[in-house]
Design goal:
The protein is an all-alpha fold. The chain has 13 helices and no strands. 69% of the residues lie in helices and 0% in strands. Helix 12 packs across helix 13.
């Protein structure tokens, strides 16, 4: 969360907050909608004389890390089923949109109204089966139609671009790999089924082993082969209908859960994990894993 997040308060303890700003906030038109009030608050935070020093100092590039962080915090709240937190995190993410729109307005590029109108038009344009006479038979058919609409729009605005252009370089690596693969698959550059991907996965794993066995031990060569292996894993997930990014996040959560269980078990014995040999940790891991698997089986059989 960005440093200026909790600074907008008229109560004591905020020396930077000019009394006139508080008066303006308290005197805002009561008929303002919540989003209109938020836009006014953002404009005040960026006021060249009376705003927040931190907020005034920011630019598009300096705000990007906070925008990404807020998006991930939304995803985290959803995965944990924390609906109260989700409400707050969605608000924080919305504020990031408002922040960028305010900076764009100041520089004469566009404003929040333009942002809203653009996404409204896009949603109508890309859902002709809802707002027009087109027919879509399934969610998968809609996904394909959506991608086709995007491709047509890109061709109109950037007619000389390549098939892979427009895939944001700042996306998480697994997500970007999947998008690149889907783009290539549109023109048939893809395996027909998972069998071909599995063969490629074995090939890439062998190349990793060869790079590791190379007497020269070139770090760059190993890194390249590991990258190819990960890229192929994403391909396998895509063919299996699995989102690789979500799958890895789930694996991270599982590892964290099991490791914390090991720490708790050792703590119950009055032992520190740093003082335990690797064989014991491996044995405890197996115990925790079996316990989870048995609990899962019991849960499944009781349904």
């Amino acid at each position: 969360m960005y440093p200026g997040r909790f600074q907008l308060r008229c109560a004591g303890g905020n020396a930077w907050m000019k009394k006139s700003i508080c008066d303006i906030l308290n005197g805002m038109e009561p008929s303002l909608t919540p989003i209109e009030r938020l836009l006014e608050i953002m404009a005040l935070l960026r006021h060249p004389e009376k705003g927040c020093p931190w907020d005034r100092q920011q630019s598009f590039s300096t705000i990007v890390p906070y925008t990404l962080e807020e998006a991930y915090e939304v995803a985290d709240a959803i995965e944990r089923g924390a609906m109260d937190e989700l409400r707050e995190e969605l608000g924080d993410l919305l504020f990031q949109v408002v922040f960028h729109a305010q900076m764009a307005r100041e520089q004469g590029y566009f404003d929040f109204h333009d942002v809203v109108m653009a996404v409204q038009d896009k949603m109508v344009r890309r859902h002709p089966h809802v707002f027009g006479g087109a027919v879509v038979d399934s969610a998968e058919a809609q996904r394909r139609a959506w991608e086709e609409h995007k491709a047509e729009e890109r061709a109109q605005t950037r007619p000389t671009t390549g098939l892979l252009d427009g895939v944001a370089t700042t996306l998480p690596a697994l997500m970007r790999a999947e998008k690149l693969q889907r783009r290539a698959a549109r023109v048939g550059f893809d395996w027909p089924d998972t069998g071909g991907v599995l063969d490629k996965l074995r090939e890439e794993l062998k190349e990793v082993e060869d790079a590791l066995d190379d007497s020269r031990g070139l770090r760059e060569a190993v890194a390249e082969e590991v990258g190819d292996l990960l890229f192929t894993c994403v391909n396998l997930a895509r063919h299996a209908g699995i989102d690789a990014e979500s799958a890895l996040r789930a694996a991270n959560r599982k590892f964290e859960r099991r490791f914390r269980a090991i720490e708790a078990a050792l703590d119950g014995q009055g032992r520190r994990i740093e003082e335990v040999e690797a064989e014991t940790l491996e044995a405890l891991w197996d115990v925790v894993k079996r316990g989870e698997e048995e609990a899962g089986e019991c849960g499944t059989s009781s349904v």
